[in-house]
Design brief:
Strand content: under 5%
Shape: globular
Low-confidence stretches: none
Distance between the termini: 24 Å
Mean pLDDT: 84
Length: about 100
């Protein structure tokens, strides 16, 4: 998850990545995505499109979220999961 978290963080162009723990980094991503849900939904959609997070997958995950989870938390998990998939595929195709 470390590489995927770093990639997600870089894609969001957040600052001070190296000065915080993984938990703090994840929380910064969650907070940023929560902010975008409320104040700049078009930018959020642009980010999800650029990272290639499936719209259907995002809708389903948000519809099935637990009450204790924020939209930003759900979207951060999906974003990091997608980055991890891309890292895995790149490594796979480099070997060939």
């Amino acid at each position: 998850m470390d590489k995927a978290l770093t990639q997600a963080y870089n894609n969001l162009q957040l600052k001070d990545f190296k000065t915080t723990s993984e938990e703090e980094q994840f929380q910064k991503i969650v907070d940023y995505l929560d902010h975008l849900v409320t104040y700049d939904f078009n930018k959020l959609l642009s980010i999800l499109y650029r990272v290639d997070v499936s719209e259907d997958k995002a809708k389903m995950a948000l519809a099935n979220k637990k009450h204790s989870q924020t939209n930003g938390y759900i979207l951060a998990k999906l974003l990091i999961e997608r980055e991890a998939e891309k890292i895995k595929w790149r490594a796979h195709y480099r070997k060939k």
